[in-house]
Amino acid sequence: MAEKNIQLEDVKNFVNVKDMLPRLRDNNMTTSDSVCELIDNAFDANAKNIWIDFGVDKATDKTWLTIQDDGNGIARNNIRRALSLGGTMNERYSVKIGRFGMGLSNACAAQSSSSILASKTKDDTKIWVNEIDFAYLLAHNAEFKETWELKAPSIISKIKFKESGTIACWKVCDNLDKKKPATLYGHLMETVSRIYRYFLNSGRSIYINDTKVELYDPLCRLENHRFKKELGVQRVYGKPVIIPVKYTGDDGVEKTSNVVAEIVRLDYIKIQEKPDLKAKL
After folding, report:
1. Dist. CA 265–CA 216, nearest whole Å
2. Which residues of 10-30 are buried (b: 16+ CB within 10 A; e: fewer)?
3. Which of 59, 157, 158, 265 shows the greatest Cβ crowding within 10 Å of its Cβ?
4. What are phi and psi of 71, to 5 degrees?
């Protein structure tokens, strides 16, 4: 059977906005991936505190989520750049956590059809805002609005930073992989406490719905791990094991790095005597 000659609409631009924008939302980023991308950005901006809050809008029955920090903030003329696909505030070879410039826009797009980014720097008295709204972008050939001063009471009432900081608000969370607030809360608590344990151990803080995250260190080696009272701070047992790993760098050259494996000896008698502690570990 001969294939049908399907006539599709011709395109003139390298980027087909009409078809590409909806596909940006299907980028395989999980909810925790997206949240962690914004946490990375916050710590890159020298944040000491990060607040993650979420709930359900009673008027629309839609879930919303905000991630904010008290970092350096983003200047007014850089907000659209920070929101743009491929835009970055970091140098190409920066040692910061998030440096690839694909994170913020993808993180927002993956979880919400409409997101805003508002920020304030220390040398500015105003909070400036712009948004990724897919309905608007589709209707305006993917062009942003002009950045404007934040005056919306619904967002201002959620802000916790003072001198400087940034807040990202996912206004319509229609693509979360954890639908129930209680499930999302438990998942984020578990994920964030482990991934950012070194930051938490250094004195930085993360709050989820106003509850401070206690760092989870699987090896119980960090000074401020959550089971210190029961198990103390564990020491390395024996010498670290060094494993050389080969990989190809960004420049295409094969390189070698060392992975260091450390072994600790936990007091399993104490763990066996406390079922709750055993389950958590």
Report:
1. 17
2. eeeeeeeeeeebeebbeeebe
3. 158
4. -80, -160
